[in-house]
Amino acid sequence: MRLSKWFSAVLLAMAFFANTAFADYPSRGMSMNGVKAQYGEPQSVRQSADPVKKRWPRITVWQYGTFSVYFERHTVLHTVVH
Asked: Of 22, 61, 71, 79, whose CA is between 20 and 30 Å from 47?
């Protein structure tokens, strides 16, 4: 009986964290146009400022209210939740 209470507590915790961790954010591989269509215009946009070689692509960061989206060229690399 004791194990089943522990097990049910773990399942409830996993469900809670899964909902918050995998909320609706841009996923890796999405395009800039797809992100803009789904989430609207970003609050601010930053680009790497230094000259960039062809083998080192320019990184762009779109800031939204609760998260930031990092792009390599026109493809999502990472989404960071604040």
From this structure: 22
pTM: 0.69
From first to last of its 82 residues, the chain has per-residue pLDDT tens of 455 666 666 655 555 555 555 568 999 999 999 999 999 999 999 998 877 777 888 899 999 999 999 999 899 999 999 8
Rounding to the nearest 10 degrees, give the CA dihedral for residues 11, 12, 14, 19. Answer: 140
Q: Is 35 exposed, middle or buried (0-12, 13-18, 19+ CB in 10 A)?
A: buried
Torsion region of 28: left, alpha or beta (phi above 0 gives left; psi -120 to 50 gives alpha)? beta
